[in-house]
């Protein structure tokens, strides 16, 4: 009898990943099995290595293989600007754009009374300490335009106000190449509020 318990376990584990349901996970596992030598074995080895070596940066919360991530370790990034993001995926997205040359602070979520997530769970006291210790001039709030994201942004703005640091947020509105008839009402409203002289 052919025992497929290990394969089924792999499919179940893959299905827990964001963006993968049971059917997508099954397809991914089948693709891996077809290319065991070229894909599955190196992937398993890389995953085992990362599981042992991955660490959260003690300064900003980014993920890397050292106590201090390359961004925080780079003296050229000490520009006096800290960009506050919700999670590491947001930091990586900002880095892909290659427009920001300062440092980051990863909150690890947003304030949520329902989920009992308060300022201490998000490392907000650590952010306040960084603003003072690193002579920060500007804090950029790059949080998602959700209710929890905006609640967190308002809390941070109020909390940081006594420090005298400049507090800014990312512009929101019509994306480059976007067409108005495809945008939701909230995006159009945000774009109108953030309008500038032409």
Count of extended strands? 6
- Sketch the topology as an H/E string, one letter per element: HHHEEHEHEHEHEH
CATH topology title of the largest domain: Dna Topoisomerase Vi A Subunit, Chain: A, domain 2
Rg over CA atoms, rounded to whole Å, is: 21 Å
At the first level of CATH, the class of the largest domain is Alpha Beta
With strands numbered from the N-terminus, the spatial order across the biggest sheet is: 4-3-5-6
Q: Using the alpha-carbon principal axes, give the shape.
A: globular
> How far apart lie the N and C ends?
72 Å
Strand content: 5-15%
Number of helices: 8
Mean pLDDT: 89
CATH architecture of the largest domain: 3-Layer(aba) Sandwich
Number of domains: 2
Q: Which consecutive residue ranges, at least 5 long each, have pLDDT under 50?
A: none
Helix content: 40-55%
The biggest sheet, with number of strands, parallel, antiparallel or mixed sense and barrel status, is: 4 strands, parallel
Structural class label: alpha/beta
């Amino acid at each position: 009898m052919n025992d497929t318990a290990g394969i089924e376990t792999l499919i179940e584990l893959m299905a827990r990943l964001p963006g993968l349901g049971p059917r997508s996970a099954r397809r991914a596992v089948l693709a891996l099995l077809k290319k065991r030598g070229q894909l599955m074995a190196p992937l398993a080895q890389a995953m085992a290595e990362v599981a042992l070596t991955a660490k959260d940066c003690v300064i900003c919360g980014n993920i890397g293989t050292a106590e201090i991530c390359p961004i925080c370790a780079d003296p050229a990034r000490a520009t006096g600007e800290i960009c506050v993001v919700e999670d590491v995926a947001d930091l990586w997205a900002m880095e892909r754009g290659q427009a920001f040359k300062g440092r980051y602070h990863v909150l690890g979520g947003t304030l949520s009374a329902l989920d009992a997530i308060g300022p201490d769970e998000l490392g907000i006291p650590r952010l306040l300490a960084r603003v003072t210790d690193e002579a920060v001039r500007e804090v950029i709030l790059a949080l998602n335009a959700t209710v929890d994201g905006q609640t967190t942004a308002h809390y941070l703005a109020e909390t940081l106000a006594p420090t005298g640091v400049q507090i800014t947020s990312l512009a929101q509105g019509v994306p480059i190449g976007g067409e108005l008839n495809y945008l939701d009402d909230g995006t159009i409203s945000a774009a109108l509020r953030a309008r500038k002289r032409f």
